[in-house]
Write a structure and sequence with these properties.
Order of helices and strands: EEEHEHHEHEEEEEHEHEHE
Distance between the termini: 9 Å
Strand content: 25-35%
Structural class: alpha/beta
Oligomer: single chain
């Protein structure tokens, strides 16, 4: 059983939580709780976690997708609350973010190529050109779950890399897909490619854009899952 809780998003879902531009989610059910991205503001991240009854000090792993502030801005406040973590970030990250991790006393792991984070959690490694980004690939009883912060290198490319690396079917892709400026034809092409890769379920949010999210909803039907801050996805063998 794997549980993914969206902690930070500009897309609303749970009314009592704060929305803000950015993304973060908590993965539970692995060997250790894992925080993927930290949103833009640490106070909002921590307040949302507490409102959901989630303990920041229980987290043992932090994975950062890329260096933009709406995904790393909450890091300093989170590490002040809980420095007893291992932080996996792309090797291309600026020195000041790496220094933040070291000064807090956390363990820093710089990621270049594909790597194992735990037995069932993996990174695609750095992808893309000008904006380097890694995705999180989770092994579940239903297949791979691919989590992206913004998917600057392209959501199709990131899903394809995860699939090539681990050789499994992709059950779900979720997170930011960076399609808010895409026109209808571009969004349709991305949807078609994801479907051709066998992605079964989809849960886009953050920078995907409302028009693209509507296109995904139409294309995937019952396999389109609403996302947003406070949404909880539970993936189990019988789900």
């Amino acid at each position: 059983m794997l549980t993914i809780t969206v902690l930070y998003d500009n897309v609303a879902h749970e009314g009592r939580l704060q929305t803000d531009w950015g993304f973060a989610c908590l993965v539970e059910g692995l060997e250790q709780p894992l925080l993927f991205d930290t949103g833009g503001k640490g106070d909002i991240l921590l307040q949302n976690m507490r409102a959901l009854g989630l303990d920041p000090q229980a987290v043992r792993i932090v994975v950062l997708s890329h260096a933009h502030g709406d995904h790393t801005g909450g890091l300093t406040a989170f590490l002040a609350e809980n420095p007893d973590v291992t932080v996996y970030l792309p090797q291309s990250f600026p020195a000041n973010i790496k220094d933040t991790v070291r000064r807090a006393g956390a363990t820093l792991v710089e990621v270049s190529g594909p790597a194992d984070i735990t037995a069932r959690a993996h990174t695609t490694g750095e992808l893309g050109g000008q904006i380097r980004e890694q995705a999180l690939a989770l092994e579940t009883p239903r297949g791979l779950v691919v989590v992206t912060g913004c998917a600057h290198p392209g959501i199709v490319e990131m899903v394809r890399q995860a699939q090539a690396e681990l050789g499994n079917d992709v059950y779900m892709a979720l997170g930011g897909f960076h399609l808010r400026d895409a026109n209808a034809a571009q969004a349709a092409a991305v949807i078609a490619e994801l479907q051709s890769l066998g992605v079964q379920r989809i849960a886009p949010s953050h920078c995907t854009g409302d028009a693209a999210r509507r296109a995904f909803a139409e294309a995937f039907g019952a396999d389109y899952l609403e996302s947003g801050v406070g949404q909880v996805f539970v993936i189990g063998a019988g789900e």
